[in-house]
């Protein structure tokens, strides 16, 4: 079973809209994958989901921000992020990387160009949601 850390942008996309990122959330709900998160990453999600631009998608799904947040937090195994040296130009990206190293996970999933440009971090591939789904659905190779 693959272990993943989702960047906040991917998590929100999966929670609020249909599409490939939503398939990752569904895979976690059906226990096809394991999602890992950290308290600081959840804090970022909690702040982002309160932004005005997400009020309409939340209302369209009949959800409150707290419900969405709690549902996602319940899907994740919470880990303590490791301390890492500054890697990305965005400290929030470093938090994703530090969380991924704490497990370590099999994939880091993001839609953020800065993270995707790294391609990997400590041998953990950094992929977009479509590539993550592709890896999840491929039969295991021996």
Q: Any idea how many domains?
A: 1
- Give the termini separation: 14 Å
Shape: globular
Q: What is the CATH architecture term? A: 3-Layer(aba) Sandwich
Would you state the CATH class?
A: Alpha Beta
Q: Main sheet: which strands, in order across?
A: 3-2-1-4-6-5
The chain-level structural class is: alpha/beta
Number of helices: 8
Radius of gyration: 14 Å
What can be said about the biggest beta sheet?
Answer: 6 strands, mixed
Layout of SSEs?
Layout: E1 2-6, H1 8-16, H2 20-29, E2 33-37, H3 39-48, H4 55-60, H5 65-75, E3 76-78, H6 91-101, E4 107-109, H7 113-118, E5 120-121, E6 124-127, H8 129-137
Parallel strand pairs: 1-2, 1-4, 2-3, 4-6
Antiparallel strand pairs: 5-6
Walkthrough of the structure:
- Helix 1 crosses helix 2 and helix 2 (20-29) crosses helix 8.
- 51% of the residues lie in helices and 15% in strands.
- The protein has 142 residues and is α/β, with parallel strands linked by helices.
- The protein has a single domain, classed as 3-Layer(aba) Sandwich (Rossmann fold).
- The mean pLDDT is 93.
- The chain is globular and about 40 Å long.
- A hairpin with a 2-residue loop joins strand 5 (120-121) and strand 6.
- The protein has a six-stranded mixed beta sheet, sandwiched between helices.
- The chain contains eight helices and six strands; from the N terminus they run E-H-H-E-H-H-H-E-H-E-H-E-E-H.
- The longest helix has 11 residues, at 65-75.
């Amino acid at each position: 079973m693959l272990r993943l850390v989702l960047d906040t942008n991917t998590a929100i996309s999966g929670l609020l809209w249909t599409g490939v990122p939503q398939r990752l959330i569904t895979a976690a709900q059906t226990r096809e994958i394991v999602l890992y998160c950290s308290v600081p990453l959840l804090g970022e999600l909690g702040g982002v989901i309160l932004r005005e631009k997400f009020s309409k998608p939340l209302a369209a799904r009949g959800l409150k921000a707290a419900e969405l947040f709690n549902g996602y937090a319940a899907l994740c195994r919470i880990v303590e992020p490791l301390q890492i040296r500054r890697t990305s130009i965005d400290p929030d990206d470093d938090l994703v990387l530090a969380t991924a190293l704490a497990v370590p996970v099999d994939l880091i999933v993001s839609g953020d160009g800065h993270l995707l440009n790294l391609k990997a971090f400590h041998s953990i591939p950094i992929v977009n949601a479509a590539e993550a789904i592709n890896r999840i659905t491929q039969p295991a190779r021996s």
